[in-house]
User: Which sequence fits this backbone?
C-alpha cells in the first residue's frame, strides 16, 4: 500500500475518540491498581500495537510495577488477514517466576496470538497470568481465552490508530478509526 498519502483516504469513520480512549484507560488503570495492591506486578506489553496503550495505562496504575516487552507476529500473508501461525520475534528480558503478569494487548481478534502466548508463559510459573486488552473483537474468536480487562468490545471491522497499524503506518493517531474496505 505504498499509495497511502494521507489518513483521510483510508479512514471510513472514527470509532473511538481520544477522549473516549483516555477516559476508559483511566478507569482500567484504577481497577488494576485496586486488584494488584500489594503484589509484584509486571506489565507485559505485546509489541508493537500495545505500546501506546501501555504508556497511557501505566500512568494510571498507582501500584509499583515493572514493564517488559514481547514481540510476536501472526500476520504473514496480507495486511488484514492472519496466517494463524504465531512466531516469537522478541522474548522477555527477565524470568517471570513468582511475578504477577498482566499482558497488555492492543486487540484480540481470533485469539490465536494470545492463546499461543499463554501456553508459552504458563510453564514459566508466574504467580498469576491475566490479560488486559484495549479492544476485543469478540465475533471473530476461534480460540477461547480468558480476558480479564477489556477496554471496548468492538465489531468485526479493521481498525487502526492508537498503536494499531495500517500497513505499519498511522500507529501515532490519538484516536481509533475504521479502515475503508479496500476495492477488490
Ligand atoms: P489474533 O491472533 O487473531 O487475536 O490477532 C491479534 C493481532 O492481530 C493483534 O495483536 C493485532 O496485531 C492484529 N489485528 C487484529 N485485528 C486488527 C485490526 O483491526 N487492526 C490492526 N491490527 C489487528
Ligand atoms: Mg497486538
Assistant:
Amino acid at each position: 500500500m505504498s499509495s497511502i498519502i494521507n489518513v483521510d483516504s483510508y479512514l471510513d469513520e472514527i470509532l473511538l475518540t481520544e477522549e473516549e480512549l483516555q477516559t476508559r484507560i483511566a478507569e482500567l488503570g484504577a481497577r488494576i491498581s485496586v486488584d494488584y495492591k500489594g503484589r509484584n506486578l509486571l506489565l507485559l506489553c505485546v509489541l508493537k500495537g500495545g505500546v501506546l496503550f501501555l504508556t497511557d495505562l501505566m500512568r494510571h496504575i498507582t501500584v509499583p510495577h515493572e514493564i517488559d516487552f514481547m514481540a510476536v507476529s501472526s500476520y504473514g500473508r496480507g495486511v488484514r488477514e492472519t496466517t494463524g501461525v504465531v512466531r516469537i520475534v522478541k522474548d522477555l528480558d527477565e524470568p517471570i517466576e513468582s511475578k504477577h503478569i498482566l499482558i497488555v494487548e492492543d486487540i484480540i481478534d481470533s485469539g490465536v496470538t494470545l492463546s499461543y502466548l499463554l501456553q508459552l508463559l504458563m510453564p514459566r510459573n508466574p504467580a498469576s497470568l491475566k490479560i488486559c486488552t484495549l479492544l476485543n473483537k469478540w465475533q471473530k474468536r476461534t480460540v477461547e481465552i480468558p480476558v480479564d480487562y477489556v477496554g471496548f468490545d468492538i465489531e468485526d471491522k479493521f481498525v487502526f490508530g492508537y498503536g494499531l497499524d495500517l500497513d505499519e503506518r498511522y500507529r501515532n493517531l490519538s484516536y481509533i478509526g475504521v479502515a475503508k474496505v479496500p476495492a477488490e
The chain has a mean pLDDT of 91. The chain has one domain: 24-156. The first strand starts at residue 11 and ends at 16. The longest helix spans residues 18-35.
